[in-house]
Structures are given as structure tokens and as C-alpha cells.
Amino acid sequence: MNGKIDHWVGKRVWIIGASSGIGAACALQLLEQGACVALSARRRDSLEQLCQGQPLALALPLDITRHEQVRAASEELLRHWSRIDLVLVVAGGYQATRADSFDHEAASSLLALNVGGVLNCLDHVRPVLLRQGAGGIGIVASAAGYGGWSGTLAYGAGKAALINLTESLYLDLHPHGIDVYQINPGLVGTPAAAGHDVRMPARMTASDAAGAMLDGIERGQFHIHFPKRFTNALRLARLLPYRAYFWLIRKIIGR
Ligand SMILES: NC(=O)c1ccc[n+]([C@@H]2O[C@H](COP(=O)([O-])OP(=O)(O)OC[C@H]3O[C@@H](n4cnc5c(N)ncnc54)[C@H](OP(=O)(O)O)[C@@H]3O)[C@@H](O)[C@H]2O)c1
């Protein structure tokens, strides 16, 4: 559904959310394979540490929830690079939110980060890709966006929005020569996942998750999800009538 990538040498990849976890692991794997990588996130010191001894890496700190900071970073990036081949929007956060102990402020700020932040990136990256008539954008949603789970009220709703958003992006942008990737990890052992109070079936390392993500991009897939034994179980559950879905999802997630 997207173009295949047979090597990363000289490819210019901007990873937003690259200071830890899946984004940092992607950055390191891409640098190892000869890509030029711009790493963004809020923690400048972590980004600079990852860039140390990496001549092809560039640290571009930003807060994704701040529209003007994303614009300034994209302008700075274009002063260094003449084009962008791939933007990976990995940044996001997790906080348990439940309907029986609802915290409006926590839910709103999680959605501002996980959805609003992606829209901020889209606003500044979309014109660059359209001008080029080439390149790609990958957005990390989550297997939690496939259907409702108990305890993930705001997180799941935000990730479901990203799943829908990437489908629209594909329909709108692919005819202009732009590749779009919807990336849905299952449970990955990272700082973000430390806040999960769900069972961790089929848990992956950040490095394996990054490998699966880049493999899907290289193959030109639109829908990249892993580990398959977990994500496919959730996708199958989605096809069931709701009575059966609610029963099964409690078994899979453990609450
Ligand atoms: N771990 C899982 O089980 C799992 C499962 C499915 C999907 N995901 C998704 O995968 C993505 C990466 O998460 P992860 O598990 O690798 O967790 P992580 O290690 O906590 O990484 C999150 C990244 O997002 C950045 N970030 C957070 N808030 C930001 C902000 N306001 N502006 C800019 N960057 C920000 C963080 O950097 P700074 O703190 O330096 O800003 C960090 O680089 C997230 O979108 C998450 O929802 C994770």
C-alpha cells in the first residue's frame, strides 16, 4: 500500500518522541543503518546523549503540545536538510483513566498530548510533504485504539482517534505520492508502560517493537501492528457481538 524501502542510507527521518522507549530505539536502529535522524522530544539532555558520537543525528527539542515549538523545530530542520523522507510521530503518554473515578483534567491533558500533539505535527509536516510530492508520515497509535478497555478511557479514545485519522490521511495524501503508516504496538516494556495496571500479555522490548515497526515500513505496509498474537486476538475480538467482546476483552486485558 506504500512504497517499499530497500535501504536507509542517506534517508532523512524525523522522529518526534525520540528521547526514550520505542522512538529512541527506532532512532538508534536507523542511525546504525546509515539514515540521517533528527530526534525530537522535550528532554534535551536525553536527546543530546543519544546523539553523542553520531554524526548523522540532530537533536531538535520541542514540546509537541506547543504548536509554535513544532513550527520552529520544523523550520530549523529544513535549514539543515533540503527534504524530509519520513516523519515518525511516536510521542505520547499513558495514564490510567476510569469512568468510575473520572479525572477531567487528566483525561483532557492526555488527549491534548496524544491527539492534539499529532495534529500540531501534521499542521507543519503536511505542507512540506505535499510540496515535495514524496516522503511519508507514520503515526504511532496503539492496539488499545482497536476497542474499549476498562481503565483506558482517555488513552484508548485518543488512540482510536489516531487510527481513524491515519485512514483519512492515507486516502487524502497517498494520491499526492505521500506514504502513510498506522502503527499499533501491543504492550511494550517502556517508561510509558510502567503506568499500565493491565496484564502485560505478549510484552515486547522497545528494541523489538522498533524493529517490527521499521520492518513494516520497509515492506510498505499501511497497518503495522505487533506482536501479532496479541494484536490479531484484539482485532478478532472486535468482530464479535458486544456481549462476547466485553467478556473476551476482560479475559485478555485482565480487568
Ligand atoms: N509502551 C507501550 O506498551 C505502548 C503500547 C502502544 C502504544 N504505545 C505508544 O508508543 C509511543 C511511545 O511510547 P513509549 O512506550 O516508547 O513510551 P516512552 O518511553 O515514555 O516515550 C514517549 C516519548 O514521547 C515523548 N513525549 C512525551 N510527551 C511529549 C511532549 N509533550 N512533547 C514531545 N515529546 C513528548 C517522550 O519524551 P520527553 O518526555 O522527553 O518529552 C518520549 O520520547 C506513545 O505514543 C505510546 O502511546 C506504547
Automatic annotation (TrEMBL):
Pfam family, one: adh_short
UniProt organism field: Janthinobacterium psychrotolerans
Gene3D superfamilies given in the database record: NAD(P)-binding Rossmann-like Domain (3.40.50.720)
Keywords tagged on the record: Oxidoreductase
Protein name per UniProt: Short-chain dehydrogenase
Upper classification of the organism: Bacteria, Pseudomonadati, Pseudomonadota, Betaproteobacteria, Burkholderiales
Family note: Belongs to the short-chain dehydrogenases/reductases (SDR) family.
GO MF: oxidoreductase activity
